[in-house]
Automatic annotation (TrEMBL):
Keyword Heme: no
UniProt KW Repeat keyword: yes
Keywords: Kelch repeat, Repeat
Domain Muskelin N-terminal positions: 17-82
Name used for this protein in its record: Muskelin N-terminal domain-containing protein
PANTHER family: MUSKELIN
InterPro entries: CTLH_complex_component (IPR052456), Galactose-bd-like_sf (IPR008979), Muskelin_N (IPR010565)
Amino acid sequence: MKEEYTLQLAIKAAPQETLQYSIYNYSSHSGSYYPQNIAMNSPTEQSSRWSSGSHDQSQYVTLKLEKPVVACQILFGKFHRRKF
């Protein structure tokens, strides 16, 4: 039986690559936690995070990508605490 070509199969077969981007716009920031900090790949560094000045649903960061893409997932490093 021939497998039907679907969007899900195309996505699964597509290569994963790092995208070049810049911060185009953002809702706000708190203190020194600017949205540009998300570009740092330092998950254990607290300074590599962005924090909005608001705590409601209006928080956002808009990325400007180098070229048009279909992105299914975007991951950023972020601060985390180890639990012992």
